[in-house]
Fold Carbohydrate-binding domain-containing protein.
Amino acid sequence: MPALLALLFFARTDVLESAYAKHDFELSADPNRAEWAKAPRVSAGRDYLDHPVAGRPIEIRSRWTKQNLYLLYICPYEQLNLKPDPDTVKETPQLWNWEVAEAFIGSDYAHIARYKEFQVSPQGEWVDLDIDRENQKGEQGMKWDSGYAVKGRIDAPAKVWYGEMRIPFAAIDARSPVKGRELRIGLYRIAGIAPKQYFAWRPTGQTSFHVPQAFGTLRLR
């Protein structure tokens, strides 16, 4: 396959495969670590309306164990929109107003409006939400605690930031994970200051990421 066609195919897939790891591992936000160097990946260089986003695309990799799902975001940047006085101990409400990478994950194919939202910032801030688009949970959904962990890291000389998530499967699926299992997933990033950039692995067709019909597939392998 010619290089250009291979790049287009890589960028437009609707499946992110997640490679099995025998043991859980420490969060490093380092794509060169053994756990991440050969992990399956997808890229996103377009926005939620399927318009190209200026600059380099983002990349998302995935691994899984019997207990957890791991996601690693690789996010080139020109200018970071960082929240002053970051708090990495408690969750940060409305983190989406700042630089952030996001994952929306659902396991209920009969009720696709139900899913979980996870965010990580370059500074290691986080917020997790229990979403039901058909029955808004309000404060209850905001108080939901998944027990996930994150790590953010900024490589200023390279102008790239990295965000890693470790999400307990118990928080996203009542079933135990097995090879071949598929979940619904949306992968996104909000970048920059003005105008902001809205990266979407699977464009939603709306000026919002919260369009579950547009989610792709996460496949455990």
Summary: Confidence is low (pLDDT under 50) at residues 1-11. Residues 101 and 189 are 4 Å apart (CA to CA). The first strand starts at residue 15 and ends at 20. The chain has one domain: 3-220.
